[in-house]
Write a structure and sequence with these properties.
The protein is 33% helix and 18% strand. The protein is of the alpha/beta class and 148 residues long. Strand 1, helix 1 and strand 2 form a beta-alpha-beta unit. The termini are far apart.
């Protein structure tokens, strides 16, 4: 048995379609003690620019970009909306972070999930990322229905 909590990667965008996914992640976090990572697939700044903080925004070249971004890290990266979501989850008592992927590729999502020890991915139907690729990589995938 490991000391590290199970981790959920919740795929979101910066709009209300993320609300049901964040709600489900919150429920699972409280029920099972899961760590939550809000993976903002809409965060790509532009084709020429990464949404991740630069070495300088992350307190120096020796630090680099941490694999789990706190609300403070996200704020420094200019991602105040995601920072507010992460802060709200943290203040509610959950172990919550954010991530700003450089691409929307399923292989990148799988690599990231493996790197942080995630075992579950939550997504809305419009963001459902090639479930076969994810389940084939050993991740469970839950599609969270939109409100309506």
């Amino acid at each position: 048995m490991t000391d590290q909590p199970s981790t959920i990667v919740a795929l979101i965008t910066d709009d209300q379609t993320a609300d049901p996914v964040v709600q489900r992640a919150t429920e699972l976090g409280f029920e099972h003690g899961h760590r939550i990572v809000l993976y903002d697939v809409g965060a790509t700044a532009s084709p020429l620019e990464s949404p991740l903080p630069t070495e300088f925004a992350s307190d120096g070249p020796d630090r680099g970009v941490p694999p789990l971004l706190t609300a403070k890290d996200l704020e420094a990266a200019g991602q105040s909306s995601l920072a507010a979501r992460v802060q709200a989850l943290t203040e509610a008592g959950l172990d919550a972070y954010g991530w700003l992927p450089e691409s929307h590729d399923a292989d990148d999502l799988v690599a990231y999930a493996r790197a942080i020890g995630a075992n579950r991915v939550l997504a809305s139907p419009d963001l459902d990322p090639s479930p076969d690729d994810l389940t084939g990589a050993g991740l469970s995938v839950e599609t969270v229905p939109s409100r309506g």
